[in-house]
Amino acid sequence: MPIGRVKWYSVEKGFGFISNEEGEDVYLASSALPNGVPSVKPGTKLEFSVAEGRKGPQAMSVHIIEEPASVVANTRINADDLATIIEDTIKMLDKVGNGLRHGRHPSGVEAERLSKVLIGIAAQINN
Fold this sequence. Notes:
- The protein has 2 domains: 3-66, CATH 2.40.50.140; 79-126.
- Helix content is 33%, strand content 31%.
- It has 2 helices and 5 strands, in the order βββββαα.
- The protein has a 5-stranded antiparallel sheet, with no helix packed on it.
- α1 runs antiparallel to α2.
- The longest helix has 23 residues, at 79-101.
């Protein structure tokens, strides 16, 4: 099976291109991505089969071999700072929980802020 790296991929368009080992561009449709993978980043190393499409070679049965390192994902917050953030988040969650007990759902702005904080904490813990 050929190996190549993602040149670019657009979730909005539902396709992108892979540069194979010979330097040839291979069309990558969203339907060729592995189940549960909505997108791939440029530089991701892939193994794939090739079928001849209407406009040239097209990737099929794509398997991710190696994802590019993420600078953002590799930056870690100091443990003391993360503990403080988690403690503040617990206070936010208590406020939301108490509101829910009284039939009050958080506003859209509050819900969005809380979800961003929780996603950020999860990313730091997962690092």
